[in-house]
Amino acid sequence: MRSIFFAFYPGLWVLLISSGATAQKAGVPCARCPQNGHCTNATFCRCDPGFTSLSGQTIFSNPLEVCTVSTCVPDINECGPPLYMSCGNFADCHNVEGSHYCECTSGYELLSGGVKFKSEKENTCQGK
């Protein structure tokens, strides 16, 4: 922990304490948020779509919070109507609980050698 003292007037001191917290890009997974959760900022987490916190809070900072499959909100099928997530040519969309992924169809593979991708703009499926 780092401390910094500032003197504004003789006899008046202000102490600033830095806990070492770093800013997180909103919406990205981070170590202090639970599985199926993401950072909203440097302090708070939010459960991913299709998941809710056990406490019922939308945004939380409790490090012991857990995001579970929401029983009130059914899983959204990103691969089916009305969304129809496009994976692009030579690829199929696969719905999984709380998300989806794309895979090249049989006889095709990603240029990178990878197996899964998220959207049409990441598609580099080509013939084997």
TrEMBL record:
<keyword id="KW-0732">Signal</keyword>
<keyword id="KW-1133">Transmembrane helix</keyword>
<dbReference type="GO" id="GO:0005886">
    <property type="term" value="C:plasma membrane"/>
</dbReference>
<feature type="signal peptide">
    <location>
        <begin position="1"/>
        <end position="23"/>
    </location>
</feature>
<dbReference type="InterPro" id="IPR049883">
    <property type="entry name" value="NOTCH1_EGF-like"/>
</dbReference>
<keyword id="KW-0472">Membrane</keyword>
<keyword id="KW-0812">Transmembrane</keyword>
<dbReference type="Pfam" id="PF07645">
    <property type="entry name" value="EGF_CA"/>
</dbReference>
<keyword id="KW-0245">EGF-like domain</keyword>
<protein>
    <recommendedName>
        <fullName>EGF-like domain-containing protein</fullName>
    </recommendedName>
</protein>
<dbReference type="InterPro" id="IPR001881">
    <property type="entry name" value="EGF-like_Ca-bd_dom"/>
</dbReference>
<dbReference type="InterPro" id="IPR000742">
    <property type="entry name" value="EGF"/>
</dbReference>
<keyword id="KW-1003">Cell membrane</keyword>
<feature type="domain" description="EGF-like">
    <location>
        <begin position="75"/>
        <end position="114"/>
    </location>
</feature>
<keyword id="KW-0677">Repeat</keyword>
<keyword id="KW-1015">Disulfide bond</keyword>
<keyword id="KW-0325">Glycoprotein</keyword>
<keyword id="KW-0106">Calcium</keyword>
<dbReference type="GO" id="GO:0005509">
    <property type="term" value="F:calcium ion binding"/>
</dbReference>
